[in-house]
Amino acid sequence: MIRHTKTRWFSLLHVARRVIYLWDHLLDYFTKYEYPEKEYFVGENYLYIQMFIVLMGQLEGYNELFQSENKSFIEIAPKKALQYLLN
Fold first, then answer.
1. pLDDT at 87 over 60
2. What total number of domains does the chain contain?
3. Measured between alpha carbons, how far is 75 from 68 in angstroms, rounded to an integer?
């Protein structure tokens, strides 16, 4: 089971992580039963999904913060200040 996410947008991130986790098993399944989807399981697509996971993982905390209700600038400012210092 994929865990519940606070924001629907990041459920896609969890699905991508799950696909990478099951990559070899999915390839075996699609190959064994000769589904045309087996053509998607190439190294290039594996790297694309990995890069997506890295980039979306960086945004996950910010998205949850900014989409939460009743947040004021005073609560958001420290996180933005930390981001500024790290860059």
1. no
2. 1
3. 11
pLDDT in tens, 47-72: 999 999 999 888 877 777 777 677 77
Q: How far is CA 49 from the centre of its chain?
A: 9
Whether residue 2 lies inside any domain: the answer is no
Residue ranges making up the domain that contains 27: 8-86
Backbone angles phi, psi at 6, to 5 degrees: -70, -35
Would you give the DSSP letter of residue 72? -
Contact 13/21 with Cβ under 8 angstroms? Answer: no
The pTM for the full model equals 0.69
Contact 14, 56 (CB under 8 A): no
Q: Are 64 and 10 in contact (CB under 8 A)?
A: yes
Report if residue 3 sits inside a domain.
no
42 domain residue, yes or no? yes
* Separation CA 51–CA 84 (nearest Å): 23
